[in-house]
């Protein structure tokens, strides 16, 4: 593996405002926050994407995200809501190839939002793709 900025943060070789860490995960402030208090949770073991991520690390990352979401509400960030977001792959907007869960505090009128419009496919299309995905679960 080459240079990874999040591994450098975990190893304290790069500067970061760390909020939390345990044996499996670390959480720190996003350097370019969408909203004030925007956090990132990362597994300490490098995984470039979800396919490489150990399920236990994924579970731990989500649990830390849950705890941070609660803390963001009662902290001075005063979040009224929270979005959890994870980009897996370039097309999904992933820019740093060390898996990370965004924890984005929300307040009224903060301007944050995901682009995209819901579609309204027929049930047979939903069933068709459901079967296709189900068949790959193993
Ligand atoms: P992605 O688009 O890969 O889901 O998000 C990458 C996130 O990492 C972005 O929100 C970006 O601001 C954040 N980021 C990139 N480099 C650094 C860094 O060096 N330090 C911190 N704290 N965040 C970073
Ligand atoms: Zn890394």
Automatic annotation (TrEMBL):
- Which PROSITE patterns does the entry link to? HIT_1, HIT_2
Query: Domain of life, per the record?
Result: Bacteria
Q: Name one GO molecular function term.
A: catalytic activity
Annotated coiled-coil positions are: none
Which parts of the sequence form the motif Histidine triad motif? 98-102
In the record, biological process GO terms are: nucleotide metabolic process
**Limits of the HIT domain:** 5-113
InterPro entries xref list:
HINT, Histidine_triad_CS, Histidine_triad_HIT, HIT-like, HIT-like_sf
Active-site feature positions: 100
What PANTHER family has UniProt attached to this entry?
A: ADENOSINE 5'-MONOPHOSPHORAMIDASE HNT1, HIT FAMILY PROTEIN 1
Name of the protein this chain belongs to? HIT family protein
